[in-house]
Specification:
Elements: E1 3-10, E2 13-20, H1 22-39, H2 52-83, E3 87-94, E4 109-117, E5 132-136, H3 140-153, E6 156-160, E7 168-177, E8 189-195, E9 215-219, H4 220-223, H5 226-235, H6 243-246, E10 249-261, H7 267-273, H8 282-316, H9 323-332, H10 340-366, H11 373-387, H12 398-408, H13 411-433, E11 437-441, H14 443-456
Parallel strand pairs: 5-11
Antiparallel strand pairs: 1-2, 2-4, 3-4, 6-10, 7-8, 7-10, 9-10
Helix pairs in contact: 1-2, 3-8, 8-13, 9-10, 11-12, 11-13
């Protein structure tokens, strides 16, 4: 009868010794031999009449090894379940040499494994965390900008023959050239679309009066201010932080000239945007736009607060790890095994991810945070409408349900959707635990703060 013992070999690190008697595996091995003898198709012998000795010689070693290891696996799982051991990953074999398994000399065998135990820990007390709920102040300028964006988005593009205003939209081709305006073989060539006013004010005069197929040759830093230059460099696949990139010469050829006619601010436009609301006057429209702009920034501030709660949990929760075991486990994973140095280098990031997984699991378990099938279906439906750029609603069409049902049969999609929904619920729980102070902030300051935070964490 198999026996299993456990001894501590380090922090949250245990060694399991499994002693297997030959009576634990021999009966099933012999049965397996007999089954092979009945099924074997070997030239010169009738089916089912192959001598047992020949079967043992041909298949015995592999069947013997498989049966011993299968028995080890079964006894190990049984022990872990009976002892209710909460472990990381899978047990790691220690110095296992299957060459010791001899089909011609069945014996008692001893196997050793290492396990890493999951720790007990207490979550950081979020109610004591120093957090802030920001309230972005909505200005008239922000409302005006959003109204202009809506007018442009729903406006009509009219073709023009000549560039005559800063509001003209130009379809252009950027072609990399040398200082003498000769195209560089294998150089960058890229289509783009941009407004005349995106160029430097001092450069725009070079474009006024131009017609289709006309072009200008310039260095990028002479044509664009810093903000637009960054966008252009990125679009052309150039390194933004390399001064040489912005000094490259390009031929910018006009292929199409357009002028966007903005939507008029009238009741028809208001009804187009808000068919289910009573928006009749420009004042009503401004109020509605203000509500939406405020809702957007409130949602951004909500995300900021949840992010603060995340860092409070991650930084303020103390968890011990079986580091030695986990580093060995990292080296055993994947087709290309990691070296000890690689595992050591990657461990801090891995440990942080593992820490958040433990924290998330604890929050979900202790607060009964789960995801119901109908929530998964609603999430899939929302994603479908998002992909197709369709408004939610009108989802009683049969094709919608058929497509969503198909998405629900994709196991990988379901796992991903489950984790995303549960993750959002965990963040919402964390938000509900903090006691933030309220603070009004200008949009520019809020955006700058977010950018600095992202830069700090990358």
């Amino acid at each position: 009868m198999a026996t299993v013992t456990k001894e501590n070999i380090g922090l949250l690190n245990e060694k399991i010794t499994l002693k297997l008697e030959k009576t634990d595996y021999l009966p099933t091995f012999e049965k397996s031999l007999k089954d092979h003898s009945k099924k074997a198709n070997i030239p010169g012998f009738r089916k089912g009449m192959v001598p047992a000795g020949l079967i043992k010689k041909m298949y015995g070693p592999s069947l013997f090894t498989d049966e011993v290891l299968r028995t080890v696996d079964r006894e190990l799982i049984k022990y872990l379940e009976e002892e209710k051991l909460d472990i990381f990953a899978q047990p790691l074999p220690v110095e296992m040499d299957i060459r010791q398994l001899d089909v011609n000399n069945p014996a008692d065998y001893t196997f050793h494994f290492e396990i890493g135990m999951k720790p007990d820990f207490a979550l950081a007390d979020l109610s004591k965390a120093n957090t802030i709920r920001y309230k972005v102040k909505i200005t008239d300028e922000m409302i005006n900008n959003e109204i202009t964006r809506l007018q442009n988005r729903y406006g009509n593009m009219k073709d023009e023959n000549t560039v005559n205003t800063e509001e003209n939209v130009l379809n252009v081709i950027f072609s990399e050239v040398d200082e003498n305006a000769n195209e560089i073989e294998g150089g960058i060539k890229k289509d783009n679309s941009l407004l005349v006013k995106y160029f430097k004010e001092s450069f725009r005069g070079n474009l006024i009066g131009k017609t289709i197929n006309d072009y200008v040759v310039t260095q990028l830093n002479l044509a664009f201010d810093e903000k637009e230059l960054d966008f252009i460099l990125s679009d052309l696949g150039l390194e933004k932080n390399d001064p040489a990139s912005s000094q490259k010469h390009f031929k910018i050829q006009i292929t199409k000239i357009g002028l966007l006619e903005k939507k008029e601010l009238n009741e028809d436009f208001f009804k187009q945007l808000y068919p289910n609301d009573e928006v009749k006057t420009e004042a009503d429209f401004r109020n509605k736009v203000k509500e939406e702009v405020q809702a957007y920034w409130d949602n951004q501030a909500k995300g900021q607060l949840q992010h603060m709660a995340y860092h409070e949990l991650l930084d303020g929760t103390t968890i011990d790890f079986p580091e030695s075991f986990l580093k060995k486990w990292m080296q055993s994973q994947g087709e290309e095994k990691k070296t000890e140095e690689e595992a050591e280098k990657e461990f801090p990031t891995f440990k942080n991810q593992l820490k958040w997984t433990l924290i998330s699991d604890k929050i979900a378990r202790e607060n009964n945070i789960d995801v119901k099938p109908e929530e998964l279906k609603a999430f899939a439906k929302q994603q479908l409408f998002g992909y197709m750029n369709m408004p939610m609603g009108g989802d009683d069409q049969p094709w919608v349900d058929n497509y969503v049902d198909k998405m629900m049969q994709d196991r990988k999609y379901i796992e991903d959707a489950y984790n995303r929904i549960q993750g959002q619920k965990i963040f919402e729980w964390a938000e509900s635990q903090v006691k933030p102070t309220e603070k009004e902030i200008a949009m520019e300051d809020f955006v700058k703060m977010q950018e600095e935070h992202q830069h700090h964490h990358h």
